[in-house]
Design brief:
Strand 3 and strand 4 (about 75-80) form a beta hairpin. The chain has one helix at about 5-20; strands at about 40, 65, 70, 75-80, 85, 95, 100, 105-110, 115. The longest helix has 18 residues, at about 5-20. It is built from one helix and nine strands; from the N terminus they run αβββββββββ. The radius of gyration is 26 Å and the shape is globular. The chain is about 15% helix and about 25% strand. The strands form four sheets. It has a three-stranded antiparallel sheet, with no helix packed on it. Strands 2-5 form a two-stranded antiparallel ribbon. By secondary structure, the protein is of the alpha+beta class.
């Protein structure tokens, strides 16, 4: 295909204009979270009682408490204390993580998530 000199002038004018319009318009995908299944051979110890501290004063409307839980480190359970997590949106509800027993008697960690 052969372009006329007029077509080349139009292209030479449009290409930089389009480039200028799209510069800064970058959409980045959310970070990829690798999902690793954590399985323990026996049930976790009983959940520990925690005193829930008051939320940070300036963040009361945007945080919720994520209770502590037992984490399996490959050899034994280790306690992870509770902490506040920031809501991704005002109406979001936090579903805390928990251990679920499998049919074979092992226990799998179900990660906490927002709904």
């Amino acid at each position: 295909m052969i372009l006329s000199s007029r077509s080349l002038v139009v292209l030479a004018t449009l290409v930089p204009s389009v480039a200028m319009l799209t510069t800064g318009c970058v959409v980045t995908p959310p970070p990829h979270r690798e999902v690793v299944e954590v399985v323990a051979p026996h049930p976790p110890p009983p959940v520990r009682y925690e005193v829930v501290p008051p939320p940070p004063a300036a963040r009361v409307d945007v945080v919720t408490w994520d209770p502590g839980h037992w984490r399996w480190n490959g050899h034994e359970y280790v306690w992870v204390p509770g902490h506040y997590v920031e809501r991704p949106r005002r109406e979001a509800v936090w579903e805390p993580g928990h251990w679920a027993e499998r049919p074979n008697g092992s226990w799998a960690w179900v990660e906490g998530h927002w709904r």
